[in-house]
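Recap from last week: sequence in, structure out.
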Amino acid sequence: MRTFHLVVLTSVLLAACGGSGDDASKQPAVKSTADAERAYVGLDASIDKAITLGFDGFNAATNANIAPQVANGDDKGTLTVSGQVDQGTSSNKTMHLTEVLSTYSDDGQLAYATDDAALPLLELKLTKVPTGTLDGTLGGSFKMDGALKGSVTLALTFSGELQASADDPTKVERKPNTTHITGTATSGDDTYTVDVMR
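Predicted structure tokens:
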């Protein structure tokens, strides 16, 4: 009888420990503001790429639809930007874009992916093309795997200047070193404040 009770008690304890472990594994690995910063830094270059892809799509568009524009992660995976742009003869244009990340990684330590049901949104407003200004926002959640697990949510705004492309004056591009990106990157209970120039 004692042996039976011992087996039952051991089974209950193991089940309880297993349940606790499962719950813990579902928690984000982000435990500090420094971790939230690292979660952002892993995505930093992708933000620059996404804006550039938006401009590529704008310059190539022949109608309101911007065909998917794709860039590779420096280590692995892909980033795809697509959406719509205002048409007409106005020198002011607005782009409504989405981002798709698939096992995207620049540093080989953190990989990011997006949920097809809730893609991050990239909004770009171009004023007085091709020598005016750029304003925009990027918001959405990115799933993380690798050195950190969980997700990071970006709420960014940016502004900068435009210039005609040196290769083709009919095309527009960002003027280097004028894009100011600010906002937050939140992961778990921690938030990193973003303030960078591109």
